[in-house]
Amino acid sequence: MADTFQMAGLQVLLVPLLLFSAALSVGLIVVARRSREESGVREFTFLMLAAATWSGAHALQFTASDLGWMMLWRTVGYVGHNLVPVGFLVFMLTYTGYSEWVTRRTVALLAAEPLFVAVVLTPTNSLHNLIYAEVGVEQVASMAILARSFGPWYWVNTTYNYVLVTAGLILCLRMALESRQHYRLQGTALLAGAVPAFAANVAWVLGLTAIDYTPLTLGFLGVVWGIALFRYRLLDLVPVARDTVLDNIRDGYVVLDDQFRIVDLNPAARDVLDDPDDALGRPVVEAFPACADFLDRTDSGTESRDELVVDDGDSKRYFDAELTTLRDARITGRLLLLRDITGRRSVEQWYRTLTEQSTDIVTVTDAEGRISYQSPSAERVLGYDAADLVGTPLVDLVHPDDRMAVQERFPDWGSTEEDAVEYRIEAADGTWRWIESRGRNLLDDPTVGGIVVNSREITERKHHEQDLERKNDRLDRFATLVSHDLRNPLTVIDGRLEFAEETGDPEHFAAISNAVERMERLIDDMLTLARQGAVVGDPSPVDPVPVVQDAWAHTGTADATIRLEPLPDTVVADPDRLRELFENLFRNAVEHGGSEVTVAVGTVEVCADAAGTSPDTTGLYVADDGPGLPDDADVFEHGFTTSDGGTGFGLSIVADIVDAHGWTITGTECEDLAGARFEVTGVETTTDPTTAGETANPESEPSHSN
Fold first, then answer.
1. Do residue 100 and residue 148 come from a single domain?
2. Of the residues 442, 457, 472, the one at which a domain ends
3. Can you give the residue ranges of the PAC domain (predicted)?
4. How confident is the model at residue 545 (pLDDT cuts 50, 70, 90)?
5. What is the mean pLDDT of residues 455-484?
6. Helices 67-95 and 104-115 meet at what angle, rounded to 10?
7. What band does 3 get if pLDDT is binned at 50, 70 and 90?
8. Tens digit of pLDDT for each residue in 624-637?
9. At CB < 8 A and 24+ separation, what contacts does 506-515 make?
10. pLDDT tens string 255-288
């Protein structure tokens, strides 16, 4: 009586526990479905649904009153029994990062045999006895259970299910051992729930227990997995398998042993190797020769990084290579990471080609204005090697007169729309070139970290602008000549003709003649300015003595005297314009000093050292003993004259000729002759002077005096 009560008590205990296990599985399904569409939710739902079916049917089997009902619930429970291993493996594949294997086709193939056994073979067992060799009821004390007598296919099905469960346990164990702390706790919880259920089923199959407690342990699995679901966010934070990550990253990795032999690599690295199918075990320099120099430069035990170039037939591939030492308890090898930067290099090369081939000069300076990058176009435009300019302050190349404008604009370059500045910059040959620059302050941009200056040579344009300015100036002078200076002689002629007609006095004709002569001089000067302006031909070495003598002969000098002081052997000049220069200076001397003026021509000596011991002949002078120069007056200004008969354009023509040659002219008092002295400096001369004696009134053709 006692045994019957004990067994009846066990039956009363098992049924509620099995129903609780089924209800717990259903509850976990509800909770999982609320976790949005996270990875693994569908697979987890499938597994819990199979577990609930198995546990619920097993509970109803214990309440059945005859063999028919017991077989019915056994058949229903067998559906869940056979789908739990499938669901367990599918969930573990998804959870450990092999979700690409979980397809409808894969799941259908995995579930084909279990469903065939549960749906086809088990209900029709009476026809073939493949699942149960004998169907009956055993009495364990007073508790009725199905007799355990298995057919041949039962063992096939059980073996298949155990293979699926074992595969899932291996995946979970591997993830738990290799993952970080959080995922390791997740994996431990999964193992803690799955292993007892697997062990209970093995014990029953082997006959170690009379009752199959596997469905009951599924309730324990549900409790433990519920803790993992809430405590460790089982379905919110699903780990990704290491192999999946490494196989799918775009960067190549090659694991090397301490002899630099390849022991592992991913598909991205295989795409780089010469013979990827035979790479394992080979020295990396044989499979990937491009890294040979890189490895030779790498010291043992250190990390290094460099750029590698791989010749890929018609094109080249660029890789950012990084070698890292792998350390555990001891040094076990090295990891070679290969990041394909071909696309980035192509873009950089495109921009570099544009910069290098551009006619504009691209300069990058630091905050202090020192050049940190100079484009190669600087060599074509200015003659400098780009590398030689790096580190040079930009303003050091700017003309002294223009530095202030550049320095004032520099800090705020690019802050306004009017950010262009024009200035002169010294070329490698010592000449000055006009440059127009626009800047952009990119000091805060980490990819640039400097001030970018785009410059364009505008020397020719500036010359055109200066020529146009001179032409406009000459037009103003012509307007003055026409409107004022020419009108005066015409007024004299008109008035004198009227008086001559009335009186017949010959003195009126002399005045008319003088007025006509003045008009001729004005027209000559006007034509000189109009035809030649400040233009010179190709300068060449010229003997100045014949030029001076020819100019004196073609000037109306009357009783004037010329005195030739020692002159250079040669001066570099346009001979025709040089003769015009002397002619106008001689006319000016006669015009203001009178017909008996004395004119001296000689060499200007400028001392090369502070002590004055090393003279350097760099110019010429023309002096006279006339009244000298007026105080505080610009005698070279167009139209300025102190003579009633002067045109005011002689000295301005001289200034144009001097400026066109690049020389400098100044007017001073002459200490020797006590008159005016004009010095032209900056003239390229030879050092041996020629001395000539005093010459009085050289014969000349009639010429208009100034």
1. yes
2. 457
3. 419-470
4. very high
5. 74
6. 150
7. very low
8. 888 877 766 667 77
9. 514/645, 515/489, 515/490
10. 887 778 887 788 877 777 766 777 777 888 888 8
The larger pLDDT score, comparing residue 113 to residue 133, is at 113
Q: Between the CA of residue 373 and those of 362, 364, 369, 448, 455, what are the distances in Å? A: 8, 5, 11, 10, 13
Which structure tokens are listed for 443? Answer: 């000091």
Alpha carbons 284 and 281: distance in angstroms, whole number: 9
Smallest CA-to-CA distance from 211 within 3, 13, 1, 65 is with 13
pLDDT at 5 over 50: no
Residue 660 falls inside a structural domain: yes
* 261 and 401 in a common domain: no
**How is residue 286 written in tokens?**
């044989």
Q: Is the CB of residue 692 less than 8 Å from the CB of residue 564?
A: yes
Please check whether residue 337 is in contact with residue 326, taking contact to mean a CB–CB distance below 8 angstroms. no
Torsion angles phi and psi, residue 455, rounded to 5: -125, 145
Contacts of 289 (CB under 8 A, 6+ apart): 274
pTM tops 0.85, yes or no? no
User: Which of 636, 600, 606, 595 shows the shortest CA–CA distance to 621?
Assistant: 600
The single residue listed with the structure tokens 């602008």 is 465
What pLDDT was estimated at residue 614?
A: 47
Q: Encoding tokens for residue 554?
A: 């073609």
The answer as to whether 202 is a domain residue is: yes
The answer on pLDDT for 9 being more than 60 is: no
* Domain-embedded: residue 706: no
Residues 576 and 676 in one domain: yes
Phi, psi of 167 (to 5 degrees): -60, -40
Looking at the fold, whether 15 and 151 belong to one and the same domain comes out as yes
| DSSP assignments along 87-123, one per residue | HHHHHHHHHTT-GGG--HHHHHHHHHHHHIIIIIITT
Question: Do the Cβ atoms of 650 and 706 come closer than 8 Å?
Answer: yes
Distance (Å, whole) CA 605 – CA 616: 6
**What is the token pair recorded at 359?**
């006619």
Q: Report d(CA 495, CA 511) in Å as an integer.
A: 10
Which two structure tokens, joined as six digits, stand for 267?
């598909």
CATH number at residue 393: 3.30.450.20
Asked if pLDDT for residue 163 goes beyond 90, the answer is: yes
Read out DSSP for 305-370? EEEEEEEETTEEEEEEEEEEEEESSSEEEEEEEEEE-HHHHHHHHHHHHHHHH-SSEEEEE-TTSB
CB-based contact 287:299 (threshold 8 Å):
no
Q: What angle do CA 623, 626, 631 make, to 5 degrees?
A: 90
pLDDT beyond 60 at 647:
no
* Residues 58 and 185 reside in one and the same domain: yes
When the pLDDT of each residue in the chain is averaged and rounded to a whole number, the result is 75
The CATH number of residue 546's host domain is: 3.30.565.10
Q: Within this chain, do residues 405 and 475 fall inside the same structural domain, yes or no?
A: no
Does the residue 253 lie in any domain? yes
- Among 8-22, 80-94, 443-457, 639-653, which range has the highest average pLDDT? 80-94
Same domain, 126 and 198: yes
**Number of domains the chain contains:** 5
Confidence of residue 706 (pLDDT cuts 50, 70, 90): very low
Instruction: Give the H or E element holding residue 345.
Output: helix 342-357
219 and 365 belong to one structural domain: no
**Domain containing residue 219:** 2-231
The span from the CA of 386 to the CA of 364, in Å, is 12
CATH number at residue 126: 1.20.1070.10
Domain boundary pick from 433, 457, 481: 457
Number of CB atoms found within 10 A of residue 197's CB: 23
Measuring CA to CA, which residue among 348, 387, 392, 351 is closest to residue 369?
392
**Would you place residue 543 in the very low, low, confident or very high pLDDT band (cuts 50, 70, 90)?**
very high
pLDDT digits (tens, 9 = 90+) for 404-461: 888 777 666 655 555 688 888 888 888 888 888 888 888 888 777 788 888 888 888 8
Q: Answer for the pair 398, 369: CB distance below 8 angstroms, yes or no.
A: no
